[in-house]
Amino acid sequence: MRTLNSRAIAAQILSAVLADGNSLTKALSITLPDNADRGFIQELCYGVLRWYWQLNFITTLLVSKPLKEKDTDIHALLLIGLYQLIHLKTPSHAALNETVAAANELKKSWATKFINGVLRQFLREQTAILSKTNAGFTSRYAHPKWLLKLLQEAWPAQWEQIVTANNLRAPLTLRVNRLKTDRGTYLQLLTQQTIAATAIAQTAQGIELVTPQDVTQLPKFAQGFVSVQDAAAQFAASLLDLAPGQRVLDACAAPGGKTAHILETEPEPGELVALEIDAMRCQKIQENLMRLQFLPENKAIKILCADAAQPISWWDGKPFDRILLDAPCSATGVIRRHPDIKFLRRATDIQDLAATQLQLLQTLWSVLKPSGLLVYATCSVLPQENFQVLAKFLATHADAKEKIITADWGIPVAIGRQILPGENNMDGFYYGCLEKAS
Fold first, then answer.
1. 10 Å Cβ neighbour count for 371?
2. Helical H segments across 142-294, by residue range
3. Which domains does the chain have, with CATH numbers?
4. 379 is a catalytic site residue
């Protein structure tokens, strides 16, 4: 059977997001082929979702009557065509011909003239169309209105910086496994393979590649010398103030990057429990720890598939010295890595997520030892999910107090520190530390 052209495949993937509400990660895992077009298909999908609010606005100017629900794939092809013309600077004949041909391959030959006409009209009128697009609020910044409003309220001086960073491609960032090598030595290995990279000054083991590439081809990746992890996420382990023999809980641990970093920072815990509610994501934790060679050798590691909010199902009654709560959140700090967040997330989600975060914090506080430390983290930039959650918690827990974070990264907020997207090319991330009274 002949493989569909790359634009037709991208349209199917985008339809799974736009019409069915699937995450882009899930849609790609189901449909993305393992061939030479893989990278281009990903570029189309990520790019269309990154600029969806701009591209979709343009379609409303060009198409007088909305397409039927069953023709989301044709709508996706229009977005793909516009993305190529505006952002990839694809030669117009190639963008038009291949996008039109994709409609035939999707067995919708009726749409070929329609797509061709719409894209040609854009080319004829693009100066005026782009002027109208830049005059619109959501279309100019390529974000939904509700999110732009929340960002303006939370960060009146920085919101444009945030949305600009969100619309950029994310770098490929690594964390060197200090138990295997040091950062300087690994940078030399990359140089030997003509892979350009730089050390990330704010981190102890962070490296940023100048050009992203297949991580499996990096030197000694299979042997666990490095892991993929954004620089902002690399501060969690150090904030835990780890020491040998401690009992440590990594709650909401998947895919296991912070679990591994905890072990790289302190390889001799009394016990490290990685807790995750989703069985498939628990498997991912195990796979990552296996690659890094922590399993099966380290008997102090336990991976539990359970709901952190229901300790009766997983807690053995022994309190923890340290807890990392990487709470489920809106992920508004990692939009550049997951641009589908802008389409899939809703304003009503924020209040629900904040309630879940507070519940998790209250529950896990009960399994923390006196004098213990809990690090609360999210990849959100919204105060409702970050310091406001901790403020509500502290108002009702006399045995809790903030441990001030002193660092050369992030912005000090009411409680904890906030990293905004783009700061030193990092993702958006929040950290707050709480100490339990002795």
1. 10
2. 145-154, 159-166, 183-192, 236-239, 257-265, 279-291
3. 6-140 (1.10.940.10), 172-228 (3.30.70.1170), 231-436 (3.40.50.150)
4. yes
CB atoms under 10 Å from CB of 293, counted, come to 14
Instruction: Report strand pairing: 411-412 vs 206-209.
Output: unpaired
d(CA 11, CA 76): 5
Quote the CA–CA distance of 82 and 322 in Å, as a whole number.
Answer: 50
β-pairing, 411-412 with 417-419? Answer: antiparallel
Burial of residue 115 (CB within 10 Å: 0-12, 13-18, 19+) is buried
310-343 pLDDT, tens digit each: 999 999 999 999 999 999 999 999 999 999 999 9
Q: Which residues have CB under 8 Å from 14's CB, separation 6+?
A: 27, 45, 48, 49, 72, 73, 76, 79, 80
CA dist 45 and 24 (Å) reads 8
User: Which of the following is catalytic: 45, 305, 379, 433?
Assistant: 379
- C-beta of residue 379 within 8 angstroms of C-beta of residue 330: no
Contact predicate 279/248, CB 8 Å: no
**Reported pTM:** 0.95
Two structure tokens written together for 275: 């807790």
